[in-house]
Here is the input.
Amino acid sequence: MTDRHALTQTFMQPVTARNSGQDTFLQAVEEVAADVLTIEKNNPDYATAKVLERLTEPDRVISFRVTWVDDAGDVQINRGWRVQTCNAIGPYKGGLRFHPSVTLSDLKFLGFEQVFKNALTGLPLGGGKGGADFDPSGRSDGEIMRFCQAFMTELSRYIGPDMDVPAGDINVGTREIGYLFGAYKSLKGQFEGAITGKGMAFGGSAMRVEATGYGLIYFIQAMLDHAGDTLSGKRIAISGKGNVATHAAEKAICEDGIVVTLSDTSGTLIADDGFSQDAVDWVRTQKQKGADISDPPAHLNLSFEKDALPWDQSFDIALPCATQNEIDANAAHSIINAGAIILAEGANMPLTADALDKIAQSKITYAPGKASNAGGVAISGLEMSQNAHGQFESADAIDQNLKKIMQDIHARAAAEGREDGKINYRRGANVAAYRKVADAITAFGVV
Ligand code: NDP
Ligand code: 2IT
Here is the structure.
């Protein structure tokens, strides 16, 4: 057993016992621990302060009942949470997810990842995550509004511009943020930037909607540039059909990439010659309507395959942009067999631990989500500063800023990730982020 492996196993034993059954959380912790424990061990200040052990216990976990009335007049009850993981370098910051599969384990893993991601942006942002086990599919607009209002009735006690600033994530987009912010403003009697991803009419930032997907493409352009290559003509397989997937597709097309797939839980859409912008727009409209992608209009030249995964196609770059653990060892095998050169995560933790091992042993250059999908939260950070100043920047200026932030994240991860003449972006991102948070935590003493 290597020293690194032994350290990780010893560290994980009590964490596993304390968080039994929280598999996604344990998976996220182990992935970071394997890279940073040797750094912690070799720095007496970090080791004495037990930085990583502290980070595995969120500052607090808030759990609440959400009670609302559906269109039939029946009372509905859901469970909501906010996990405030760490505010060492700024207010808690991270999205809200509404999905029937959401568990506390998922929100703890997402909050943990967010601490490191937010540190990498270079902005003063702590980490957290929240959400509910609410299923928005098939719900009317009125039901979504009443759910958001009931959710905010509880959440509003725990958030604020200098305390905790939520945003969107799966199934929480501009519409939901509007209802959530409207409820917050009405409950508090104050107009303040306690949520990001707001509409442009009420304090939102230009480019926040596009930022995660565009930022992902800027990140892989920085990787390609570093390797003396470009995106032009590259075949790109994307999973998902939501905010991240469709904006990544849109930017990739602008940069002369060939987007060969998008997908949802109903199956995969394939365009062997590449998606057009019209085809991406159609997919986006289907998502907004709550509809699947199984029946594209003929003029878009898309074929739909119910049982296919994006990774069964031929491509150079894989961008998983749907959800956690969507790529298992078999899917990783397909990505390797497709001859891919880059796998960059748009989603948070889309690879199982086995898939990550397989990719690490292959020739593929892998970019972890905490680096490659940080564009969304970065522009959320800029939304917070625009709200604080009451001055707003143009879409062009924000887009330039986003590109620069993604290039800087790339540089930070590359600087810490040099290994045998190559770059290990996973290790580089984990170590760079850890050092920043650890320096703050150790400066505070024991609190
Ligand atoms: P959206 O709600 O906009 O879209 C998610 C889409 O993913 C849904 O349409 C869903 O399909 C699809 N999906 C879910 N599971 C699967 C699966 N197993 N295979 C194929 N498709 C699937 O969410 P986002 O785009 O906002 O989020 C996607 C990922 O990106 C998440 O991991 C999120 O945490 C991460 N992320 C999001 C950021 C943001 O700013 N929004 C920032 C950084 C990361 P269906 O409609 O069939 O359910
Ligand atoms: O996973 C993420 O980084 C997000 N869902 C965005 C968080 C944010 O606060 O903008």
